[in-house]
TrEMBL record:
One GO location term (cellular component): chloride channel complex
Topological relation to the membrane, as annotated: Multi-pass membrane protein
Protein's organism: Filimonas effusa
GO molecular function ontology, one term from the record: chloride channel activity
Protein name: Chloride channel protein
Classification via CDD domains: CBS_pair_SF, Voltage_gated_ClC
Keywords, in A-Z order: CBS domain, Chloride, Chloride channel, Ion channel, Ion transport, Membrane, Transmembrane, Transmembrane helix, Transport
Domain of life: Bacteria
Stored InterPro entries: CBS_dom (IPR000644), CBS_dom_sf (IPR046342), Cl-channel_core (IPR014743), ClC (IPR001807), ClC-type_chloride_channel (IPR050368)
Compartments reported by the entry: Membrane
Length: 592
């Protein structure tokens, strides 16, 4: 059935493609991808909304009944079961996997990504898992764009644009924030910002935001009502928020990474699920606001300046200081709750947790200033500023943080403090960590280097794709006259010498044997390849291109041999071939 629909969808796309110019078809595709990604995001939002309405509608925000503590255990278990049973290796979590697909897999993502994240993340978060839906939305939108590009037989550049369109539409739909969606796609994917790239992203993001607004309205989308205009007298307060957001973001990334490593060393999925879900249940029992995404808590703090919780930690204390200490505990343990959810087998991301922590942190700082005697502190403004600061620090996406916060507040009256907080937070985290949490994971798990654009472009290249295998090769016992006979018909100036096991024994340079060839070869009948070869510096086929360029500089040669993991000769590689492929790669990703 799926193949049947796939066949006729491809025929329809091919028909439309033949009727339009290349530019017109790309714009048509970005509208379709934007609409599809938006409908996927809306479906995910509605699934979670109705699950929460079914199981938790009678419970006030910040409160949780004893049996509801157990619901996340079931949610994470079901999600882990679906992933393990149906999706397995085709299930990709995290923005780092998307960047890797763009760099190393021709921007191709599995078809199952189109629906797998909707199913698993809705179960995880809808039943109380402490994670966000935005990362699954990003993965779904990216898969929609990638697979539409494959169906349309689009080249790498256009397919990457559609992948970015899906991401932009996903974020835009989640918050009705099209500019933030565009900026998130650009900051995460690191593609060139040109007019040709920008227009499709804007169209997709606008399409996604419009559809989400029509279908969802304001009830499910995040919005704030109790905001105040920016007062420059509060500038110092925003500086404090920026610093604390940066430090908290640094704490979040390091603790999450540490917990990720701890779970990775557990023996199996069952053990990870038991540990993750049970520890999450304990945390939710102690700190009920950790339940679910947490957006309702942020809105409650911003609009009402208060929070009621039935946690036993607050039952015997009724003071402002007790509430602040409780919320500090919520901030510190949210990263544990998110890691337990995701690493325990559930599906979700750190986008919503970062916004949640930032909002609660902004509220805590506002109440601290009030308790210290400062009046007229704009609590809602601090909540929104804290959200921008945490998002900027965790994802290294300051522009996304600024414009997302501006768009969800319904205007740009707070643009100055948002810029200030996001920039300070980003600077604080960047001072300790050169890469964001997900890009650091990408850098460690692959040879990609996202920190430098030139190095990132180089790291996209694979030595295996640049190796020239057309060079002559000789055995150790090949005579000099036979070598001379073969190289007389060859244009190369370097040759491989291999032993009986096909492993590289050495290389022969034409310049080294010219004098012997000019002499009477009859006098060198007993000279063998083993006598004239040299032991060269060689590369492994698994080395990255940056290593290869460094080897060229150190050896002062233009050609290096490449061997396999077993030491067998794989071919030669030249510096000019690397640079030619690099120039071609720049052309491939340039959107003019």
């Amino acid at each position: 059935m799926i193949r049947f629909f796939h066949k006729y969808i491809r025929k329809g796309i091919t028909y439309i493609k033949e009727k339009l110019t290349e530019r017109q078809f790309l714009l048509f595709a970005c509208i379709i991808v934007g609409a599809a990604a938006s409908l996927a995001a809306v479906a995910l939002k509605l699934l979670v909304f109705h699950l929460e309405e079914t199981f938790f509608s009678h419970t006030a925000p910040g409160n949780v009944m004893w049996y509801q503590v157990l619901m996340p255990i079931a949610g994470i278990g079901l999600s882990a079961f679906f992933i393990h049973r149906f999706f397995k290796k085709d299930f990709l979590k995290g923005n780092d996997k998307i960047v890797y697909a763009i760099a190393k897999d021709n921007a191709n993502l599995p078809v199952s990504q189109v629906y797998s994240h909707i199913v698993t993340s809705s179960i995880t978060v809808g039943l109380g898992g402490s994670a966000g839906l935005e990362s699954p939305m990003v993965a779904t939108g990216a898969a929609i764009g990638s697979n539409f590009g494959k169906l349309s037989y689009l080249p790498y550049r256009e397919k990457t644009v559609l992948l970015a369109c899906g991401i932009a539409a996903g974020i835009a739909s989640a918050f009705s924030a099209p500019i933030a969606g565009v900026l998130f796609a650009l900051e995460v994917l690191m593609i060139d910002i040109t007019i040709t790239t920008f227009i499709p992203l804007i169209i997709s993001a606008a399409t996604g935001a419009l559809l989400a607004r029509i279908i969802l309205g304001d009830n499910i989308l995040l919005s704030f009502n109790n905001l105040h205009a920016f007062n420059y007298n509060n500038t110092l307060f925003y500086v404090v928020i920026g610093v604390f957001c940066g430090l908290t973001a640094l704490y979040y990334t390091r603790v999450y990474t540490w917990l990720e490593h701890r779970f990775a060393h557990m023996r199996g999925a069952m053990q990870r699920w038991l540990w993750g879900s049970l520890l999450l249940a304990v945390l939710i029992f102690c700190f009920p606001p950790l339940f679910g995404e947490g957006y309702h808590i942020i809105k409650l703090l911003a609009d009402n300046n208060r929070l009621h919780s039935n946690s036993f930690l607050l039952n015997h204390f009724n003071s402002n200081w007790a509430l602040l200490l409780f919320l500090v505990g919520v901030i510190l343990f949210k990263v544990f709750a998110t890691a337990f959810t995701v690493q325990g087998g559930g599906n979700g991301g750190s986008f919503a947790p970062a916004l949640f922590i930032g909002g609660v942190l902004g509220f805590v700082i506002a109440r601290l200033f009030v308790l210290m005697g400062y009046e007229d502190v704009p609590t809602a403004n601090f909540v929104v500023a804290g959200m921008a600061g945490m998002l900027s620090g965790v994802f290294f996406a300051p522009l996304t943080a600024i414009f997302l916060s501006a768009e969800i507040t319904g205007g740009y009256s707070l643009i100055i403090p948002l810029m200030l907080v996001a920039a300070i937070s980003f600077f604080v985290v960047k001072s300790f960590e050169p890469l964001s949490m997900e890009m650091k994971k990408l850098s460690l798990s692959s040879r990609l280097n996202p920190s430098d654009r030139d190095k990132f472009m180089l790291s996209r290249l694979e030595l295996a794709h640049i190796i020239d295998r057309s060079y002559l090769q000789f055995n150790l016992n090949t005579s000099l006259p036979e070598i001379a006979k073969q190289i007389s018909r060859d244009q190369k100036d370097v040759y491989a010498v291999i032993n009986e096991n096909k492993k590289l024994a050495g290389v022969i340079y034409l310049n080294d044997i010219k004098s012997l060839m000019i002499d009477d070869l009859n006098r060198n009948l007993h000279t063998r390849a083993a006598d004239v070869m040299i032991k060269p510096r060689f590369l492994s086929i698994n080395d990255d291109v940056e290593t290869a360029l460094y080897a060229f500089e150190q050896s002062n040669t233009h050609t290096l041999a490449v061997v396999t993991e077993e030491g067998e000769w794989a071919g030669f590689i030249t510096k000019s071939a690397i640079l030619d492929r690099y120039r071609q790669e720049i052309l491939n990703v340039s959107y003019n």
